[in-house]
Design brief:
This protein is α/β, with parallel strands linked by helices. It is built from nine helices and seven strands. The chain has two domains: about 200 residues, NAD(P)-binding Rossmann-like Domain (Rossmann fold, 3-Layer(aba) Sandwich), CATH 3.40.50; about 40 residues. The protein binds NADP nicotinamide-adenine-dinucleotide phosphate (NAP).
């Protein structure tokens, strides 16, 4: 028996941040369902590892998405590699925890660029290229609605991203294009395994870093009634939204009950 055709939106998909964490889990879920992907990031080894596991169906594109010139023509390049484009997922992102009064210019600009400007620009590209019925999914965060004292820049960017998503949903609707967002709680990826420094701390020894990460993860897990999330939990939601034909402009919270 032939396997069913994957829904429009999940067949030929550009995935930023596709080399690790949530983006990698999205690529793996799409590939398992019979789709093809172009995975984008800076670390060539991770992207090429994925491409080698799925020859001909997973493609690697190395780009620094914080660089406007490196974003130029990205969706067209993905469409060329895939023979068209019906889906776009923006999972690339970065977070730098700093309290007000200690937010560096570099951290502020880089978080706005990667978490807000890049998805806006790439969403515009996708809007022009996606096949009718296609979908976009933006990985936002529960921190868009419920900040912590160190998340001003990240929360602002991820909240702004929701308005970008809703604008793209309106603009795409006449061509049956959809745009949605997933708002994860804390998911066990490299992003939350980076030790957070206290004010005045410059560096930690390897033992201190390990202890800090363990304490960090335990503290974060305690905020979630269902415990920390795994990348596959978020990927499942993203793939659903990519292929959901009458869902657009939605904020899909996947947070193990954290916002309750
Ligand atoms: N983990 C969580 O608790 C959590 C919660 C809510 C939302 N999110 C969001 O989920 C998304 C994925 O994060 P994750 O948790 O899966 O962590 P992750 O594994 O660190 O993923 C971040 C991805 O972004 C890519 N990236 C970072 N800077 C880039 C740049 N300048 N150009 C191109 N790619 C870049 C990274 O690849 P390279 O380093 O190779 O470039 C990496 O693959 C992010 O948008 C994050 O804000 C995460």
């Amino acid at each position: 028996m032939n396997s069913p055709t994957p829904p429009t939106g999940t067949r030929k998909v550009l995935v930023t941040g596709g080399g690790s964490g949530i983006g990698l889990a999205v690529c793996e879920a799409l590939l398992a369902a019979g789709g093809s992907v172009v995975a984008v990031g800076r670390r060539a080894g991770l992207l090429e590892g994925l491409a080698a596991r799925f020859p001909g169906r997973a493609h690697a594109l190395r780009r620094d998405l914080a660089d406007a010139r490196a974003r130029d023509g990205l969706a067209a390049e993905a469409a060329r590699l895939l023979g068209g484009l019906d889906g776009f997922v923006h999972s690339a992102g970065n977070v730098v925890h700093q309290p007000p009064g200690h937010i560096t210019e570099e951290a502020l600009r880089s978080q706005l660029e990667l978490n807000l400007v890049a998805p806006l620009r790439l969403g515009e590209q996708a809007l022009a290229l996606l096949e009718p019925g296609g979908g976009m999914v933006f990985i936002s965060s529960t921190l868009a609605h419920k900040p912590v004292p160190t998340s001003a820049a990240y929360s602002a960017a991820k909240a702004g991203l929701l308005q970008v998503m809703k604008t793209l949903a309106l603009a795409g609707a006449p061509r049956q294009l959809r745009a949605n967002a997933v708002l994860p709680g804390v998911v066990d990826t490299d992003m939350v395994r980076a030790p957070r420094l206290q004010l005045g701390e410059k560096a930690l020894s390897p033992d201190e870093a390990e202890a800090r990460v363990e304490a960090q993860l335990a503290g974060l897990a305690a905020l979630h009634p269902l415990g920390l999330g795994q990348p596959a939990h978020v990927a499942e939601a993203a793939v659903h939204l990519l292929g959901a034909p009458w869902t657009t402009g939605a904020e899909y919270v996947v947070d193990g009950g954290m916002l309750l």
